[in-house]
Amino acid sequence: MNCACDQANLCSYEAGLAQLIAAAQPLTESEKLPLADALGRVLHQDLWSAIQVPPMANSAMDGYAMRSDDVQLHTPLPISQRISAGAKGQDLAPGSVARIFTGAPIPHGADCVVMQEMTSTHDDANGQTWVTFSQAPKVGDHINPAGQDVAQGAQVGKAGDLITPRLMGVLASVGFAKVPVVRRLKVAVLNTGDELVMPGQPCYDGKIYNSNLFTLCGLLNNMGCELISSTQVPDDPDTTRAALLAAAAEADVILSSGGVSVGDEDHVKEAVEELGELYLWRLAIKPGKPLAFGHVNGVPFIGLPGNPSAVLVTFLMLARPYLMAMQGRHSIGSQSYPIPAGFVRLRAGPRTEFMRVSLEVSSGHLAARLQANQSSGVLSSATVSDGLLIVPANTKVAHGDMLEYIPFTELGAA
Ligand code: AMP
Ligand code: MG
Fold this sequence. Notes:
- α1 (13-23) crosses α6 (308-326), α3 (212-222) packs parallel to α6 (308-326) and α4 (237-248) packs across α5.
- Strands 7-4-6-5-9-8 form a six-stranded mixed β-sheet, with no helix packed on it.
- It has helices at 13-23, 165-173, 212-222, 237-248, 268-275, 308-326, 380-383, and strands at 30-34, 47-48, 58-59, 63-66, 77-83, 97-100, 112-115, 119-123, 129-133, 143-144, 155-157, 178-182, 186-192, 196-197, 208-209, 226-233, 253-257, 276-282, 285-286, 290-296, 299-304, 337-340, 352-362, 365-370, 387-391, 402-407.
- It starts with 12 loop residues before the first helix and ends in a 7-residue tail after the last strand.
- By secondary structure, the chain is α+β, with helices and mostly antiparallel strands.
- A hairpin with a 2-residue loop joins β20 (290-296) and β21 (299-304).
- Adenosine monophosphate (AMP) binds next to β13 and α3.
């Protein structure tokens, strides 16, 4: 598989992403989950409502239900029944009103509700309560019509929908106790590098802590993937092959970090080539040099760079949409917003840059402020950023230029 590469063998971000997405084969297996456990999962099939919501017209206010024609200002009407939420009223006797509460069904015969604040009451000698109105009602006043939220037979979910708290509420409102969801995507992570040690271990000469595992673990978790294994792989060809094979035996997707450059100690490339197929793309993006894509024994493999912020950016902008497509999500783009640049860049770079920025308001105007250190080895600037600002290749930036901004919240990286 070749990426549509242009000058200097660099492949554009868009072409690289399109190739990845085209190669994704969505999971087809599903499971039925209790609705409360389905948050963050992907709906496996279209769902329709068997009922209307609300099931019956109900009162939007505490007050009185009546026929609007029966009301004359300052002329009292008797209360003939009391209907609270959850109760079922009787047909409304002509010339009378029903005391009614929010959520209670509108009795047959009534066509409006007057809120109690617009009324006054008095009891007569027989203990009968009468209501006087200070405002004339109109038909439909303060009534939530049956089906105003969801019509019977309406579609309430689409296959590929992400189950958000909002969708969970709607599915509950039409009575789904269980929902069919795509099974969780199983991802194995390999972090390559002789220099890596795990937090909790001593970090002695020449070593650094393995941060990529934790970045990836959080990002995968946020998108509902199952991290089935994580392996720290030394820079050694045999161990790399063995780790790839073990990952391929259990995962739907293998994700690695580091070891895909062209150095003598970068063994991932050759190992994948031996065990399957590998395409090494030189993407025209920054940060993020080469991105490897292929398969090991038929299991898709994505090789991210090693540098921590290149991992963040290539995961968010390339691996994440691919994994979303694998999860069966129908909408895999992330929403971007045009935001004015709060900085100047005099030199146009040859690659699309995904810059860590914070949003700030100065003199009443919103602008994207560049984090000072954009190095691909610097991750800490991402924690004080709000999102990524996309500076297209070969583009200078003047103060106020509108650029596409993607918040980390949109990218599941908050
Ligand atoms: P590589 O792509 O393997 O040449 O790694 C590029 C840079 O990223 C090197 O400075 C590595 O030490 C660093 N790096 C690679 N993997 C990790 C990791 N898991 N955590 C933190 N830094 C890493
Ligand atoms: Mg390395």
